[in-house]
Amino acid sequence: MIVEREHRSLLEHLGREPVRGLFPSFVARSTPDARSLASVAHDGSVLASLVCGADCDVPFVSDAWLSGWDCSAVQELVERFVARGDRPGLSYPLSVDRAVTDALPGVDRTRDRHLVLTRVATIEDADVEELTRVRLAELAVDDELRPSVGAPGTLPERGLFGLVIDEELVATADVIVDVRTACTVQQVFTPTRLRGRGLARRLVADVARRMATRGRTVTYLAAEENVASWRTAESAGFELWERIGYVAPRALTQ
Length: 254
Description:
The structure is a single chain. By secondary structure, the chain is of the alpha+beta class. It has two domains: 105 residues; 126 residues, Gcn5-related N-acetyltransferase (GNAT) (Aminopeptidase, 3-Layer(aba) Sandwich). Helices cover 29% and strands 32% of the residues. The protein is built from nine helices and 13 strands. Strands 1, 2, 3, 4, 5, 6, 7, 8, 9, 10, 11, 12 and 13 form a 13-stranded mixed beta sheet that branches. α1 runs antiparallel to α2. The radius of gyration is 19 Å and the shape is elongated.
């Protein structure tokens, strides 16, 4: 049975597993007109949930997130999603990839790795800063880094962190924070000319330590093919938690 649930009710359910519920929670909280669907068993338990937003306005977070562990329930929700007139990009756990494949045959997918911090790595002192627009204007920024810098501070759930050496920004990481219990580190970038020096690892390890000391579960998101990125995360104390599939909006409308 599929029901439309209030965000508060769905967020309460997702909050029981903060890592898996991290991104769907962002969509539900960040999009005023988001629609939350849930597949519910006869005893009231939620088997799968689908949160669709027009634009959650959180960088690099998909506007539709599917969560669940029951394949038949997931497939039911995906079929409902396909029937929508407007279909944003869809993300989902690869544990239900077969259900998504059956509902969306022939659609190309990409894969991400979602890792979780299991140990706080020992690192040398790192000059890591939580960046603001004012501070960015004071720093030397490599042209390769400028697209990653964006406009930090536009959302309370997002922070931009950077490793600064001699007033030069040498590495950046985008951090999306769930104000309750969890956060994720993503879009870590170092200019080509500075790679191979362990700068990204220093940045990631320091940011992870900061977030962990604030009592949050810390996760890391990287594309499956970006081996250097998730290897950096592993060296900074992260381990694989789950793999996530992503279907682009253009693939859904073809």
